[in-house]
Amino acid sequence: MLGRVSQRKSFFNFRRDINPKSHLLETTVLLLALSFGIQDSATYPIFQCFASNQTGNTVLFAIHIFHLTSDDRLSHTIVPIAISLGAFLAGAIFFGQVACLLRSVRRKWWLLVSSSLQTAIVASAAGIQLGYAAARKSDTPIGRAALALQAVAAGGQVSMVRGLMMSDLTTTMATAALVDVLIDPQLFAAPAKNIGRNRRVGFLIALVAGSFIGAAVYKNNGPGLTLMVGFIIKALATGMLLFNSTVPDDEEGG
């Protein structure tokens, strides 16, 4: 009986750090990776850049700065790329530094608040894409506003996940995760003996699945509904944070 009460407290004590070893938290982060793949699938066809993959954006930005492409359509994407980069950095700085100032990087209450804000921002971007035809063009202010909203939410999400100290799950960096899997000395070990590999493979599957799901939805229904699907998955992940367990006070790191 006492054990059940203690477990219940660990679920609903919002002032404690969330438990990074929780399988439910792993699932939550994998859902966030899935939503990232979906959202970028809705972004690239319009803007020829990404809302979350800033490595790709940085390379594209350099290519356009030095006019290394002869495609007139692509040459006009430098502004959306700059917007995405800037908004992503702004989101990462805001959510990351506020968490540090509040000393709540891994606090359950902060994860719920920040993830809810990011989810609301994605919902706003989806609403803009659904409600305004002009938002589906890369050279319109409202379209660029929707892109900026997605990038802000992406920056906040990456900073939040990195703060969880779950190095195997980043939600964005597929290349590093893929290489880590391939060079793992225990690559072929049983699932129970290599949790890190399992996490990385799960992340890669989630990101790839999200990309294909997003592309399929986009082809048949357009960017607005694609972003709405990403929002629903992100909202589900946010709700799951409510039920993640926390760690005892003596194990907290802030």
UniProtKB/TrEMBL annotation:
Keywords: Membrane, Transmembrane, Transmembrane helix. The chain crosses the membrane at residues 21-38, 78-102, 109-132, 201-218, 224-243. The keyword Transmembrane helix applies. Pfam families: DUF1275 (PF06912). The keyword Transmembrane helix applies. InterPro entries: DUF1275. It comes from the Eukaryota. This is DUF1275 domain protein.
